[in-house]
Amino acid sequence: MHDLPCYREMHQQQLETKPALGLKMCCPALQLPPEILEQIFLFCLGPHSQAALNPPSQDSAPLLLCQICRYWRNVALSSPALWSAFHPGSYPTPNNISMINLCLERSKNYPLSLTFPRASDPNRDHVLDLFWAHMHRWFEIVFDAEVELASKLLALRSEAVPLLERIVFCYQHRTSDFQPLFSVLASLASLREIVCPDANYFPKAMVYISWSNIRYFAIYALIRGDECFSLLTNSPRVEKLSLFRYTNSSSNLSLRPILTLPYLMKLYISTAKGDTGELLDRLILPSLQSLDMHPPRDNKTLARLGARSSCNLTHLGLFDETIPSHLIPPYDPTVYVKLPCVQTIRSLFIDQAVTEAFLRLLIWDPVCHRDNYLPFLVEISGLFCYSADGVLSDMIASRWCKRRTGNLPTRLTFAKLRCLRQSFMTVNGAWKLLPDLSLHDQDSRVLRDIAGQGLELDFSPGY
Asked: Are the C-beta atoms of 196 and 202 separated by less than 8 Å?
């Protein structure tokens, strides 16, 4: 203790004689190794596809990172990945071109994610020339498929774009004939992902092209069952498929032969008017691991798919976008929880209110007086919980259980639940108001205790 004043005096002298050392001691972020700091900077950008859609700004990464201090600026300037995803922006001509040149220079040889300028951009020709000079580095391109640009893209060849893996189409200017462009894109050996984000338009020509190299499709526009079936028939190596506005086929899809997609691992299918079972009943998916779907009208559809495919799911998501998520859905989620192909899931997402019967079904019974389900479940989310006091917390506690002996399931690691103030359910076709669904005292007490023991618990209020 007698040495403490001497230590303080020496410490103060260090701060006065070496300001940089004092700054580092006061700011832990300045002590991070550049490799770790660079990874943190990359998280500031978000996904490459999102970064490519945002014009560079002094108020956001990466330009903002260069204004904090000399150390951060040096790290940012020495990280090519930070400068590899950008949008041409809407700047006066000199600033626009100079910013693009700056990003291209700082990105060095790193693969590029680019958004092509639209026809209305006064710098368009100059910007496209710059982009084309670096086409050997294209990794992702986002563009509006209007006539002039589509014609320019017809000259693409695999050897000229060896890194191009992802294309995002927009359709602000809809041309009548996409067939030649799609034929060229399908021939690119490196291309793996195609995203069509326009919710109002889907180019029908896409379904008639052979996409032998494509691994992922994301289609936001309305697509019929027969069109989707044709697209999948021509995409034998597809691994992920996202359909955001599926609708029923214009013809009888049951007359089509069963289609096997041996590599499809992840399927997302949403519909507002159609029946997802129409498509699922025509597929065999032996590699399927993740399924997010609007439940089919026939609740035995998933059972048939699992039996045909012999697949073991690791994730199941159920949602019904035709009704608000705080309402009791017309489908019964307990049917899916009992299926053999679902017993291997580790993640369950149900974006709807669930009843007490569903929660009781998930309570784990270690002495096996009844059947137990979902033994490997570690994440559960999305639920609006409607139950008597103690049922919800019993379910969570039975899957958390501190003592890991005997017949116990894999321990939960994450639960995101929502509590309702009120809800409705259908009774003989009419909506009926349910009682107050605020979190009960026992549930609240037990869940807080479990969260204190280490469970990552997110319990947010509902309606």
From this structure: yes
Of 118-132, 157-171, 217-231, the poorest mean pLDDT is in: 118-132
Residue 387 has pLDDT above 90, yes or no: no
Whether 140 contacts 48, CB under 8 Å = yes
Question: Which of 86, 95, 83 has its CA nearest to residue 117?
Answer: 86
CA separation for the pair 127, 124 (Å, rounded): 5
Residue 355 near residue 386, CB atoms below 8 Å: yes
Burial 234-269 (b: 16+ CB within 10 A, else e): bbbebbbbbbbbbbbbeeebeebeeeebeebbbbbb
Q: Give the separation between CA 246 and CA 249, rounded to whole angstroms.
A: 9
Q: What is the pLDDT of residue 313?
A: 98
Residue 296 backbone class (left: φ over 0; alpha: ψ -120 to 50; beta: rest): beta
Q: What phi, psi does 425 have (nearest 5°)?
A: -145, 160
Bridge pairing between strands 424-427 and 430-433: antiparallel
Per residue in 261-283, pLDDT (tens digit) is 999 999 999 998 899 999 999 99
Dmax over CA atoms of the chain, in Å, equals: 92
Reported pTM: 0.84
Give tens-digit pLDDT for 200-211. 888 888 999 999
Query: Nearest Cα to 55, choosing from 103, 110, 107, 124?
Result: 103
Mean pLDDT throughout 345-356?
89
Asked if 319 contacts 292 with a C-beta cutoff of 8 angstroms, the reply is yes
Give the Cα separation of 96 and 88 in Å (integer): 7
- What CA–CA distance (Å, rounded) separates 187 from 442? 61
Whether the per-residue pLDDT at 85 is higher than 80: the answer is yes
pLDDT(425) > 90: no
Sequence-distant (≥ 6) Cβ neighbours of residue 117 within 8 angstroms:
88, 123, 124, 127, 128
